[in-house]
Specification:
By secondary structure, this protein is of the alpha+beta class. It has helices at 19-30, 78-87, 146-157, 212-221, and strands at 9-16, 33-36, 45-49, 52-59, 68-74, 91-99, 103-109, 115-121, 136-143, 160-164, 172-176, 184-190, 202-208, 225-231, 237-242, 248-253. The protein has 2 domains: 9-121, 2,3-Dihydroxybiphenyl 1,2-Dioxygenase, domain 1; 136-253, 2,3-Dihydroxybiphenyl 1,2-Dioxygenase, domain 1, CATH 3.10.180.10.
Amino acid sequence: MSGFSEGAPCWADVSLPDLAAGQRFYGELFGWTFQDQGEKYGHYTMALRDGKDAAALMGKMDPSMPTAWSVYLASADAAKTAERAREAGGQVVFGPDTVGDSGVMAGVIDPGGSFVGVWQPGSHTGFGVVNEPGAFCWSENHTRDPEDVDRFYQSVFGYESRQIGDGTAFDYKVLSLPGAPDAPIGGRMRRSADEPADTPSSYLVYFATDDCDAAAATVRRLGGQVRQEPKDSPFGRVAVVADDQGASFAVIDLSRTSGEQPGQ
């Protein structure tokens, strides 16, 4: 695929306690094959869908790290993006670090507490496939501090947004890059007051599937959990699940839409 615009989601990876178990789970669920990048890169493992880069798996370097999926946003200059993130109230938790000739990465925690990666491409430009079964198709930031988070991403990446819902009972914004309001790149959801107080802010990564119900059933069979049962929506039939080690993500059948999209 061609390069990704500044601020667009360009990569996703999952940090797991058991890398081999992760390969078994995601290999069966999404049909991924894997390429271990070797000891030099901590056995960071590329996940391929039909030979194209779909995502990556990595073993947790520290047991205290969360077992979670992360999304990375494209940057032409990771150092400058990291500095803008600091100035806007974010915390740079690692990097910028050069990863061989693949690129430069940094990790940021936004003002609401969600981790997001920054990726300056080298030989690895990011996703080789999106919006197809077994590939990334969406991400959204679930946060308890939407006002500060909105200001942060607008300051760092120039995001524009469109409000979905009344902004109170249901507060969701569709995000787009500067000057491209008709090409959304992600979402921002205010966490519900009904959720447990200790539920952390985080990004939810979505993967496309050709059958949401079958994918949810496969997750259960492989030892994972279905945290939100499959349901129809204007964007597709979607379920929120977790793998057998506890990392949450969503699966969505983009072809099975129901009702009109909000704001249409």
